[in-house]
Amino acid sequence: MSSLKPVLVVAGIGAGGGTGGATARAFAKLGYSIALIARGTDSLKSLENELQNSGAEATSFPIPSYEHSSIKSAFESVRARYTSTEYSIRAALYNAGHGVWKPFLDITPEDVKIITETNIEGSFAFAHEVLSDFKQNEIDTTNGKRGILIFTGATASIRGNTTTSAFAAGKFALRALSQSLAKEFGKQNIHVAHAIVDGGISTPLSRSRRNDSEWDQNEDIRLSPEAIAASYVYLASQERSAWTWELDLRPAHEKW
Q1: pLDDT of residue 108
Q2: Collapsed DSSP state (helix, strand, coil) of residue 25
Q3: Which of 32, 81, 173, 201 has fewest C-beta within 10 Å?
Q4: Residue 96: which residues within 8 A CB-CB, separation 6 or more?
């Protein structure tokens, strides 16, 4: 593999205690430098400081939205910080999301706009920047990759329900994008994967909403961000003779 230092770019970290943050921590332990892109400035800075204090190289890049121009600007800053003479973007995670759970007739134009921006405009812009960089990479001789791009999906990626018409529409689109990119760029030794996260994740937000210690302590009925991150590390390590496009993850007792 190239002597350049590998970089993981993560878009979407929430409060820092969910899938995005756990993935950043997991890849940092493997020696990756970390670029964090998200809307929450305080959460970004907190995670950046945590990673740096653990000995990792990490930088946060706050954005006002997931519009194309914001993503493009963030990547310009990422490339200025992690220059191509020393670093190489080798992994990327699009983990941004926005949930709307409402009866169809209650959904507003603003709901549709933010769902579209987060799941479609943002993911297209993120993928465009990442794949453009991956194409410049040498093939890693250990796994046959120029890089891996992972999208975080949900139950709504494959199944709509009574209050998920807006949310599912966005997640269906994200899944379709990931499948199309996997087929197009696999021939260039670029690995694209999609993860269906089918169940509740134990995050600071979900714990505060549920206020249910039994749920949080029972790993049979909820997902842990660290376990999801471990699956993403596994995807990144897969050799080219056996790549996964779609991985579905759920707790042992999840009804499906």
Answers
A1: 97
A2: helix
A3: 81
A4: 11, 12, 38, 66, 118, 122, 123, 126
- Contacts for 80 with CB less than 8 Å, ≥ 6 apart: none
Q: To which H or E segment does residue 151 belong? A: strand 147-154
pLDDT of residue 96: 95
Tokens 């169809």 locate to: 104
Residue 36 tokens read as: 């964090």
Give the span between the Cα atoms of 114 and 223, in whole angstroms.
26
pLDDT at position 212 is 80
Q: In angstroms, rounded to a whole number, what is the distance separating the alpha carbons of residues 44 and 238?
A: 29
Cα 164 to Cα 106, 137, 168, 170, distances in angstroms: 11, 39, 5, 10
Q: Rounded to whole angstroms, how far apart are CA atoms 169 and 24?
A: 28
pLDDT (tens digit per residue) in 50-82 = 999 999 999 999 999 999 999 999 999 999 999
In the predicted structure, residue 2 carries a pLDDT above the cut 80: no
What's the pLDDT score for residue 178?
A: 98
Structure confidence by residue, pLDDT tens digits, 14-44:
877 799 999 999 999 999 999 999 998 888 9
Q: What is the sign of the dihedral through the CA atoms of 156, 189, 88 and 132?
A: negative
- Token readout for 224 is 């842990």
Question: Using CA atoms, how far apart are residues 51 and 203, in angstroms rounded to an integer?
Answer: 18
CB count within 10 Å of CB 71 equals 27
For residue 1, pLDDT beyond 60 = no
